[in-house]
User: Fold these one by one.
Assistant:
Number 1:
Amino acid sequence: MSFLEVKKVSRFFGGLAAIKDVSFEVRKGEILGLIGPNGAGKTTLFNVVNGFYHPSRGEVFFQNRKISGSKPHQICQRGIARTFQVVKPLQRMSVLDNVLASSFLRARDKNHANEIARESLEFTGLYHDREVISKGLPLGKRKRLEIARALATQPEVLLLDESFAGLNPAELDESIGIIRRIKDRGITIMIIEHHMKVIMAISDRIVVLNYGEKIAEGTPLEIRENPLVVEAYLGVSPSA
Amino acid sequence: MNRYVPFIALALLALVPLLGLNSYLMHILILVVMWSVIGMAWNLLSGYCGQVSFGHAAFFGVGAYTSGMLYSKLGISGWWGVPASVIVVTLFALVFGYICLRLRGPYFALATLAIGVILRIVAENLVSVTGGDLGIMIRERSWIEKTRYYYIILGIAAFSYLLVHQIIKSKLGYYFVAIREDQDAAESLGINTTLYKTIALCLSAVITGFAGAFYTNYMGYIDPKVVFALHDISIITIMVVMVGGVATFSGPIIGAIIMVVLAEAIRSIPLLGTAHHTLFGILLIVIIIFLPNGIVGDFAKLKKLAGFSRRRS
């Protein structure tokens, strides 16, 4: 059986299907890119995997156990952590306290929690900002704080929701480096991203959603040449 | 150095009765200590965990009535109410929390507002159980003199302070603040928000219940309008913490001193005395505008303000 499997998942809001009958697998240790035009249902899919939404139909399996229907904190305890597209730092807490709040999850005691938090901050290059109240962080660092916090729960799978949006080129390079190093640690990554250059460069495989349906799945090269994907992004060419 | 301040303060407070204060001053002192206990309890749930309660009178009243009814129904000393209130208040908080903690933000606040009023009306009408509007009178007062009451409430206060302090410095404390700052983020970090909100509610309720049980024994008389009062208990609880400093250790203590002394001072002014709630309302507005973090939280700002006005004069 597969590592993480999304099986025929649909999610309706009223009469609107945000995702329809989507199935795919995530293999252990890979980076899976999730792309699609605005409103394609990418974040909804994350919310289903992470437990904020229960699928209206279908199921999600992680390591052969069903996780759809569980609460987000239970899914996080199983080893799936996420970041948010709209960053949600614990505003009035310092950067260190933000990460501490999540590192307690797998820590034996406070010293251990401190150790995990420190490690995770050094990994994301935020250690020097640890005393800063997170409200005052610039966007680039807040995005990285999201990653640091998710890593501090010591996950097996990391769901990254647009961790690159709004970053300047220097920050972009830094974040790509961080993601590659997360992969090197053996953590599986599922990433939503609009930045095509980035997603093509770092993904092992890509799943494309459009209007809530999966229209393509494959390596970056296959995706780039898939006519359905080109159509979804650019529209139908008149000659076709 | 700062670590020892609470212990020094406790030692000094323990020596106060040796000054031979008259019984009115001792009464004020007891009220200050009692209000700081309630403030600390509210601070735990609403200040740290962010679940704002407008109904702490409910927990205060349940504690008070536990004590009162042990005396009136079972004929045993009302002081048994202090330990017994732990069980009764916890059960009550669990039921209330199960129903209401699924509400967020203002909706939870409104639910707490309702529970305080509901309990008052229930206590007024369940005459066979609570004695209704006549209340419960404890005929045999334990002591005439106030010193022992003072030490009992001081003990409760020291215990509460230590408890809150230890909790906030531990994993629980981080979880509470995380829930306050963003419940969805906390949930996605693996924090069982329902469980930890329930823990915060129960702890806060139990500490408030202690104060209520003490109140029954100290005052010797309770009735629904007094112990379930919205404006005299629930709202003053919030004011104590707002004035002193939300989510600070010493805020509730500073707030209790100011509120109790202020209440007594205003009440003693002829004509103006009956308007003390109006004046509290004005004070609250001033605090929210100028010192939103309270006196302790905005101490630096306060010092700057004082320095500024001195230079001008």
Number 2:
Amino acid sequence: MKSLQNPPFPRRRAGLLGAGLLAGLALIGLGAPAQAQRAEPCIGASWELTGPLAHTGLQIRYSVETAIDEINAAGGVLGQRLRLVAYDDQGEPARAVDNARRIGERDNCIVMMGGFRTPNAIALREPLDEMGLPWMGVISAGTQVIEHPNGRNKWMFRVSMKDRWVAPFLVEAARARSRNGRIGLVFEGTGWGQGAVPDVTNAMRAAGLTLAGQETYNIADQDMSAQLIRLREANVDTIILYGVDREATNLVRSMDRLGYKPQIVSAWGVGVQFAQTAGPLAEGVIVAGTFTWMGQLSERAQGVLQRIQAKFPQVRGAQDLLLPSGTANAYDATYIIAETMKLAGRIDREAFRQALYRVNFQGIVTNYAPAFEAKQERHDAIKPEAYRLLAFHNGQLVAIDQTPYAQPRR
Amino acid sequence: MQYVLTGLSVGSVYAMIALGFYVMWSAARAVNFTYGDVFMLGGVLTVVLVEMGLPLLLAGGGALAIAALAGAVIERVFVRPFNREANAIGWMLTTIAVGIMLESFTTITYGPLGRPLQTPFVEQPIRIGGSGIYPQELILPVALVIVTFALEGFYRRTVLGRAMRAVAFNRVAAGLVGIDADRITLLAFALAGAIGALAGFLIAPVIQASSSMGVVVGLKGFMVAIIAGIANAKGVVIVGVVYGVMEKMIEGYLSTAARDAIGFTIMILALLIFPQGLFGRREVQKV
């Protein structure tokens, strides 16, 4: 009679099955999200280190390396030295994605730090999700970097300004300074400039105002007389500007030609270099930002500046920190990363991400308490309350309360 | 009024660049596509030399001399070896490549940001009614007129100039009467380099000197030369100035954002109607 019981496995077959099972488990392990793996105590960075935006990467590097030196001098993180692995993306999104892959898969860093351009950051959304790699922005202010259209931003965080929050801040500053309520918008013809139009329009509407004029220009334009003549004819006395140093210089030069001197309230594309290129024409231009290294500094900020100068001799003083807010944001972001790693208790990306919602840190820009919250909108660490108005005065970009422009013109 | 004033200034820059293309084309039937970067050298080198302590005019003169040398080197190394055959176009690639290298090198060494070039002529604008212009910008059309007449005089009244015209007219025949056509071509590129750098030197105080200042200007100067008829000096000067004023009119009365699109469209239409350029003549060859 044939037994109904299955015959026992021969020993050899059982061994093969066991090996297959182990291999299968290993394969499952490999296919699991990378965030489940432990990571290295390194900050991977994709910055603009060469090309026309090379100065932006350098400005971030100054403060990040200085902060890392300070952290390591104080014992490092979880008994290990924190390292920086920086790659150049030349401001190109495709290179930024390649760099993210290197950082996430080869270097296996705990976190990636972003650079200047918003398009680069936006291009990273999917790769970061796939790898489970936390990302920390320090400049790129595009709203959609953090507020993803699908509402499911899990890995991208930022210690910087956010365009959607900047617009009402600028509108309020412009409203307070306009004598006749005629406010105009001038923006560069880039994704950043054009993206600001709905933000500013909505902020104006919320303030019960309408734009009296709206003008744009192309990058590298040398003369903005046509735009300014139209704004002058519209009786605009205050301009909200979304532009960078070079074109902002050409704008104030065009204003000087025409003898037309509206108050400029600018987004933070205008930096310290503007004072050098525009000379006396920079006087009184107001800029939104998070920090300035010029004027009266706290003792702590003064110390940071001195250490940056000691480490990078080419930084002769605050005048060489061309993107003051970005440099300060990057300094704070580096410390937030280190504190978060300590809070997580292990070098693990998912634990790190969870700890970001609990970390508190008193930075040079603001007090981060907590730095982030578990909702997409609050993956931005610097809240609008910490935004500051800065102004050019005597060739320096200083806090507006240290200038004669603190009081509205009315 | 404002559009005419600033248009004259901008148009003079385009015209000087186009004039440089004319000089090169006349001698070699080839041009230096990195010419926008030679224009950039005029501004950037002046700033560098001023920062080194040289007086402005000496620095400007030094920048022009270096740009002229650069023009000659580009001809000798990047144009001549690639322009030996009848319909050779290798020089296009080599000059574009050297332009990219030149701009990248400048960005690395000089930095990506613009730097100011101070002159007394940008401190206070001259205001006429609601319009205004810096004296520095008025120097540009004056310089253009001087360069145009000086070039005309050079071509007509000097032995070297006549030799250049002879090479332009018939390179082989010029060689048969003892003119060293290669040397003349080298000098033509050097002369064009100096003209381009002069434009860069004069406009830099108004727009800042930066490594990328020549990209768009070089392109527009070449377009002006083609539309005018690259072999006609007066033509390129007139079209350059007219294009500058037209640009400002488009900005003022049509659209700022679409300025280049509209301007280029008008130029393409003009080229369709006048394939040899507005001032060009059909070249007839006996076969």
Number 3:
Amino acid sequence: MTNWVYIGTLSDIPKRGARKVKALGCNVAVFRTGEDAVFALEDSCPHKQGPLSDGIVHGRGVACPLHNWVIDFETGEARAPDVGCVKRFAIELRGEEIYLGGALAAASEEALAGAEV
Amino acid sequence: MKQKLVVIGAGMASGRALEHLFEMAPGTFDVTLFGAEPRGNYNRIMLSPVLSGEKTYEEIVTHDADWYAGHGVHCRFGETVTRIDRKKKMVHTADGETPYDKLLVATGSAPFIIPIAGRDLPGVRAFRDLDDVNAMVDAAAKPAAQAVVIGGGLLGLEAAAGLQARGMNVTVLHLMDHLLERQLDPAAGHLLKKELEGRGMKVHCRAQTKAILGEDRVEAVLLEDGTVYPADMVIMAAGIRPETRIAVDAGLHVERGVVVDDAMQTSDPDILSIGECVEHNAVCYGLVAPLYDMAKVAANTLLGEEAAFKPVETSTKLKVTGVDVFSAGAFQGGDDSEDIVYRDAARGVYKRLVLKDDKVAGAVLYGDTADGAWYFQLLKDKEPVADIRDRMIFGQALLSADADPFSAVAGLPDTAEICGCNGVCKGTIVKAIGEHGLTDIDGVKKFTKASASCGSCSGLVEQVLALTLGDGYSGESQTKPMCGCTLHSHDDVRRLIMAKGLKSIPELMQALEWTTPDGCSSCRPALNYYLLCAWPGEYVDDSQSRFVNERHHANIQKDGTFSVVPRMWGGLTNPNELRAIADVADKYEIPTVKVTGGQRIDLLGAKKEDLPSIWSDLNEAGLVSGHAYGKALRTVKTCVGSEWCRFGTQDSTGMGVKLEQLTWGSWMPHKFKMAVSGCPRNCAESTIKDFGIIAVDSGWELHVGGNGGMKVRVTDFLCKVETEEEVIEHCFAFIQLYREEARYLERTAPWIERVGLDHVKEKILDDAENRKALAERFALSQKHAQDDPWATQSRDPELRRTYEPLREKVIA
């Protein structure tokens, strides 16, 4: 069972922006897209550990502020040509309220696990 | 004996329920119908055309007196039910009691009245019933009357359009970023705003209403930001809430709405409820389709038949004549969904399909809603669309066209207009290609004028060329697109911003047919700069389109900390400033303090959450942002000049301070550095700066386009001038020419190499008028640029908060 923790409301995060949350023993970057979808990744680029929460959010990804790697929100993976993956966290929106859940399996493992996810 | 059915509320939901009841089992119930309005059931959703004058009230009446009489309904219109006595099974009104066997609560919803001062003034109305409409029509009779509509949702916009059709001057105030945010995505919302503004309506988004002003009746509306809109009438259309008072008083289970089960039964088995007042599975409904479904279920339940309400997908259309808007499903996207976006700027068309698991999950259509029904069907049927996804955005009609990349153009008839500016259709272009043996876009431009004006159709023209010539088309445009989001080059985008008067990023992306919903980290900062440069004082800077350094007004370092560089005018400082810097370094445990190449002091390793406090401390000593982080005027480096140096010919320090005070805060295509040396020994290294000045006995030598970076470039000599005023005018003109002509992230050195020094001289030296005009434009833009961002950020508690991490809050 997931333990959901309340971390704030949608208005705490700017549209096409992010906020850092100290939770679950690490820094988590919580992103809000232009269309108010919310995603959470570990706030550390797989390249040189840049703070993803300070990057430019576009579409469903973020460009790391240090060397412009683009990390995909849905898979946690760097977009080509770069290769790497960051931890994803579950997010639940209850109205305007944002709840953070536990770490999600890597996208590739999730595919293997199939319908059981 | 007939069962007694009492219905509270004579609206559309109960009206439909009665129709079903009389159809399925006529004569089963003896019906008494209470309605608060002094009239029977009418089609409330058609009030908009009644307001605009396109229909009359008589035309929208759904049940007239004959209908009620024919079915033996005891009509008690204008009589409000005050209480339900569940024990005795009676409803009470001012006139007495009425017994029931079954009770149907269909009280609908009430407009949400924002709790602000002045909301009770005469002239403030909702848009809910015929009385409201009549009041609006009366108000519009006054010549040049002003109306303010609070709320840019479906209801508000329909009210606004109707009032405008009645001749009122209408302002729409909307709290959110874009209109119809529950129905439309930002791009479509933006198009709608533009369309309404084009019709003369004023639309104010992000408008927080503070109060309604007036003595005896409404006179104006005041916003939190101080804006005042005069108003003869104010329409509150900020939402609705279920009308549940009577159900609450009766002790029924009520959450947001009256809670019902699948059979429309409330917590009391003899009481049913339908319509906007109910809540089913934690959802309240406001569109007519689900309410009609509820009505049918309730009729069945009353007759003892089994029936269950299943919410279905609903679609929305805006009922404003001439504005085509359609949305359905989860158009905002969600986890694991993908977008297909189509934009046709010339026709003002925007279409977006949201796909999930190869099925249509949502759709937003603007300008061309012809395929709305088809997409909605695909959505409801959960039809897999993998086979048609590459073509489906073009509509059902083109589905059969060949699946090649040019199918959109191939599928167009010869009469289809390609170039909107010059009215050139596809057939004309194809014919010209054949007759004149054209092989490139310039040829097409020459012979047909297609894409010769605004140029936004050049992509389409190229497709026509490729289609007509087949392999004979060698193609590719000469200019490189800005990024993967567009086919337009930097120069095209800048030209089109001016030509089309584009004033925001969403507007630009729509007009220039961006292929991504909100650009990328490469184009967004460029667009933000181009718009800022084009519309000084008018464009609202989009901080989320800025690189982190410009967003946080400090330089990000490899470990995610920041460096802070306060401005020191011309490189001058004093003991007071140095003390403040030392205190900050101590207080915030700054690990490294370093002198920079631009004669400033850099505090390295500051934590992001400390930045606002560091800035307030520095501000107190008079230190402001040094913009060491920006594509902006960085520093003016100086030598000590004639004030101290035995070789100095002029006051180079004073000139440097003056120039820095005049030019600081200006945003540029890239960083911009200046220097002033007091003699040809050039101690300030003026000849590797973007704008370098070397003082000589007889005046000032001006040098441009130097660079000390990766590729060292010595400045070009521009000219020599005599007075300080001339230095300033040339400096302003050069900066502005660079700001207006260089591509984003292009320093002055490569820019001058690209356009040639002669071009710069032509614009600045040969044409004195142009130089003055450039300088004036720079001065104008500086009026809006010279606010210390550190002060702005650290003084605003809301902004300060954004530098701090969010904290998790465990809820017990």
Number 4:
Amino acid sequence: MWAYFIRRLIILIPTLLVVIILGFYIQALQPTPTLSFNEDQKESSKYEQAQETFIKAHNLQLPYFYISINSFENPDTIFKIINPNIQKLLITWLDQIKNWEAVSTYYHELKQISIADSSPSIRHLAKLLLTEPQIDHHSSIVLETKATGKINNALNKLKLASWNFAFFIPRINFTIENQFHLWLFGNDEKDGVLKGNFGNSIYTNQPITQNLLSGFKYTLIFTCLSIILSMALAIVIATIWKWNPKLDALISTFTIAALCAPSYWVGSILLTTFSNPELLNIFPASGIQPIFSSSNGVPVHFIYFILPLVCYCYGLTAMLVNLLIQHLKTNENKAYYYTAKYKGIGKSKLYFFHQLPNALLPALSYLVQSIPALLSGSVVIELIFTIPGMGFSIFNAIQQGDHVAISFIFLLMGTITLVSFLLADVIAKWFNPKNEAIW
Amino acid sequence: MVIETALYLNDRINNALPYIKNQYWLKAVLLISILSPILANDLPLVTTTKEGTLTFPAVKNIWIPRQQITYNETSTFKISCAIPYAPLKSNLENTNLPPLFSNQTYHTNSMYINFFKVHWLGTTKNGSDVLSNLLHGTRVSLWIGIMVSLISSFIGLVIGLGAGFYKDKYFKLSWLQVFLILFSIFIFWFYCLRLTVSVYFHLFIATTICYAHTLLHRNLAKKNSRKRISIPIHFLATRVIEIFTAIPKLILILTLSLFITKGTIAVITILSISYWPLIANLSRNLLDQLGQENYLQSGRLLYLPNLILLSKHALPMVAAVVLPMSITLIGFAILSEASLSYLGMGLASDTPTWGVLLQESRSNFSAWWVAVFPGLVIMYTVYRLYRLGQQMTNVDKLFLHDK
């Protein structure tokens, strides 16, 4: 047993590492965040400065990972250019021209012209070219404006120097100075994830754990309550099925229908019927209050929990009932069942002490496995009922595109999921050691 | 192998046909998904052109988008569709109408037209007809479901079959072959995906790699045939499946939909990425359990070629479980698409789907008809698909026992 557990744990760690790296890459795929400025302010140099300090503060200009494979012509020092737009522009130019030296000299010449040239029209033209990613369009723009001299010379020089053979040779870059390393280990200024610092939110600059986990208690209460309630309900329904086998078709119809009903739809239907001033105004439409804070000694705030709990529970209950009945049926064909039956055990004793415990095991294993799904399912339910839980803040963080928050969410959810899978396997192995582990 | 599989599938479908016969709801949904432009459209079914010949603009709409169709609006001869409203077309005079005969404003006094111009299931807050939206929504929702199920079951079958059939020790390659495969993958990734090089260069690289591969394989791999290493396909596939299941589906979908541009193809890719581990896990587990029965093992001992073992013995057993599962997966994909659209992160709101309709109800609680009817339609369709899947499993069990 212990050997199995330890072997499982050893395999879990690299899997978790890959999940974290995958999450990091997924969050890195989205465009770099920009500060929100008005259109008028964007023109000024103040905006560029603010943007640069913002990017520098979060180290967004660094490469994502230790190893990156690039063409030999790609400069490994490109991350020193802080402005992401210029970085992207130079790389698109390089893809077309395939010669880094020519591209960089062209860029510097244009920059020089846009600052220092005497005629304003040529300065404007240079600025225009500095925002144009397609090199083919450059010559047409130059032809249209009939500009000659410096810009034309620079463009001609660029076109002559295009195509360097080194562009087609791959090169492996290795740097310790990257975003993943900083996030995991930290540097002199701030701690990394391994020392318990998960970073600050990009937009609010508060610690991400405080941001995301402040509502965790609500989500935890809902998850625990729904697990207990739905398990109890499922056992009750399965017992009813055992004593009334004619209800089989009815129960299966209702459970499958419940599985097919999306939770947000059920939530909005419940809201329109039970918290509608025109129809029935029994439950509050939104918000949450602490359970045990009461007025006049009566816990009135329990009423806030009822509609969300229904939303949490019905699908899980249906799934558990399905599983329980299926395994009760298979247990009825087994030898132990016949033996006990013909030895003369009472029906209720046979059911509660022999048949039900055997059928409960897969249901329990499923329940443990569904904890992460419940946590992520809280996103939708908390959005509908506007509960300030973890799901609500997760949705907000993802929609804002907060880099730090997304990698933290992947870390948290990946850990919870892998641990719950491990727990489910261990439960299955504990109760039935004959179970061959699947690797 | 292809013919074997086709014959097998044909056999299986023939066996399941008596059960499929009674699926009236699913047949109706499939038919509506094709014929929705005829049933509900603001284009007339039959009109005359200026020269006087008959045209059928609504029928054309089946394969041509609505914006590209023009017809003679001044013509006096018109037969309109049964539901004369286009989906998502706003009508500010009749907003938030409840279903059935409600007081709506008309522009004509003809009784005949008034009888047909009824919003049977009410209107949304923009004044577009709910029934018309529902009918047109079947098209996008059902086809997204079918495509997701097809793609994810294909990927899942390939990976699950490979893992379950070859296990950890039966897939053997020489070191050279391993190196060549890894090298060609790297070359493909570097030159075709990473660098933006011209198409002719891609072709050149691809042909040289293929040529070198075959040459080296023929001449050198035979010499090294004794030094073969077994590749732990089962272990690798299990880890990949574990990694993909470790990330909760909803969070993966939400994060992916941030930077993939909105559209049907994007939704299909996002959902296929999140659903293939289900099928892969199922088929792999099934083959692992079969491994205990040893009939694949005995086939190996008889030196049956792997292709025949795969197609005649492994695939039929797996397909018996995967086929019903892929049918229920259509339903789950429809549900996920609806929930994505409900959260406002799926399809753009100018395409009519069931989820986009549900999203309308999110900000408009008093209009119960916008929430109830699409929800019921989604629920019953998914329910029917689930039931069909269950029936198919039972049929397959019978079929296997007969043999």
